[in-house]
Amino acid sequence: MSRSRLLYTLLICLLAPLLPLYLLWRSRRQPAYRQHWGERLGYYRQPGADAATLTAATNPHAPLIWLHAVSVGETRATQPLVKAIRQRWPQARLLLSHMTPTGRQTAAELYGQDPLIRSVYLPYDFPWAMRRFLHHFQPQLGLIMETELWPNLVALCQQNHLPLLLANARLSEKSARGYARHPQLTAQTLQALSAIAAQSADDAARLQQLGANQVHITGNLKFDIQPPADLLQRGHRWRQQWCPQRPSQPPRRILLAASTREGEEALILDAWQRHLDPNWLLLIVPRHPQRFDAVAALATRRGFHTARRSQLNDHAASTPALTHATQVLIGDSMGELFAYYAACDVAFIGGSLLDYGSQNLIEACAVGVPVLIGPSTYNFQEAAQAALAAGAAQQIQNADELFSRAQTLITAPASAPTAPSAGLNFIAHHQGASARTLQLMEKLLTT
User: What's the rounded mean pLDDT across residues 163-176?
Assistant: First the structure.
């Protein structure tokens, strides 16, 4: 073990007694943090004689492919890759590992009916815990989604001759500066990877500056995600229910604030009070489910007539689900973001109004809805710049401009550069990352 990794390991061992306190603290808002503590130390229950185990027994040569997806965004990004894997290796067993309950829940929503896919927590990066993880599951190939570098895990994979691919890799300038503070450990970890599939040339350059080799530019997997038809239909149905056509009245519009982060809702609601228009409905979908109640309470305290998606009957097609007096609707549900995009007239992407680096704008573009993003985009810098250049998105600087620009997009569409076709063309132009990543996986499995 190198000196830098030894020091790193000693540090996390010193912090180990704090882990139960950390998990209990996180469980105040997300009770699921109280579950599966054994997995976080590398202890896993045997799945028993389920379909996946039987398949392994009858198909001993079927590979076990492991994908590590930290949370929601990374888990969703696995969709096109899982589809490609299924087509290339139909009998392959897939193991998804996560660090957050929401990531695990997302995997259950996406793949819960597939008997060949299992989801677990990845252990914390103690050598003995990671060794138990690898010994228990014995994957033939590992993929780490985006940029989640665990030095002990990567080193153990190299020692066990397990090919490990950093897939859909992205590295912002801010993150690169952080990794650069530990140059030896970072370089050793990057060089121990079998290959890196970077989203863009800039991501590849930043990784190489930190010492990475075997870097390939494959594009962003999120461009390959296809909006599910059932969610699009659900969104269109919501639109009819939430904003029914009124005789001799203009149609009511929906402004969606999607994946908002803490502090942004207050700014948006304050601006909504200044721009209040009865012909618009403000739909807010917080990024994290543990904040649903707090955001709903905030809107109510601001004096808005507020409703919640969880309290609506979206199957009663003959009656409106909302009254015209409703001013704010809280999207307090998981796994329905595509439906929210399909229901709205204009979508604002959260995490960009304050300095969070933005959430994913690609899904909104894929639905063909006009997109607005705030000034902070470092987490999706390449995609944001490309979307702006293609006319698939427009940038606003503050919450007041959010409402004025949304109004312009609807009332004067001829003067607005953003159009649904621009978003769809933008998506089509950047697809193909899953096929290129699959080619790297094939090489790693055969070498």
Answer: 94
Inter-residue contact 96 to 144 (CB < 8 Å): no
Of 74, 146, 336, 363, the catalytic one is 74
Residue extent(s) of CATH 3.40.50.11720 domains in the chain: 37-219+432-446
Burial of 44 from C-beta contacts in 10 A (0-12 / 13-18 / 19+):
middle
- φ and ψ at 387, to 5 degrees? -65, -40
Kindly report the pTM of this predicted structure: 0.87
Residue 416: band (very low, low, confident or very high) from pLDDT cuts 50, 70, 90:
low
* Domain 229-429 is found in CATH 3.40.50.2000: yes
Tell me if residue 382 is catalytic.
Answer: no
Confidence at 314, pLDDT banded by 50, 70, 90:
low
Q: Which two tokens stand for residue 41?
A: 């130390």
In the chain the first and final C-alpha atoms are separated, in Å, by 26
* Residue 398, helix vs strand vs coil: coil
In DSSP terms, which residues pair with 121 in a beta bridge? 98
CA atoms within 13 A on the CB side of 301: 9
In the block, which residue shows the tokens 């001829």? 414
Indicate the burial class of 204 (C-beta count within 10 angstroms; 0-12, 13-18, 19 or more): buried
Q: What is the CATH number of domain 37-219+432-446?
A: 3.40.50.11720
Is residue 225 helix, strand or coil? coil
The percentage of the chain sitting over the pLDDT mark of 90, rounded to a whole number, equals: 81
Sign of CA dihedral 385, 391, 394, 395: positive
Q: Which two tokens stand for residue 106?
A: 């997302």
CATH 3.40.50.2000 location in the chain: 229-429
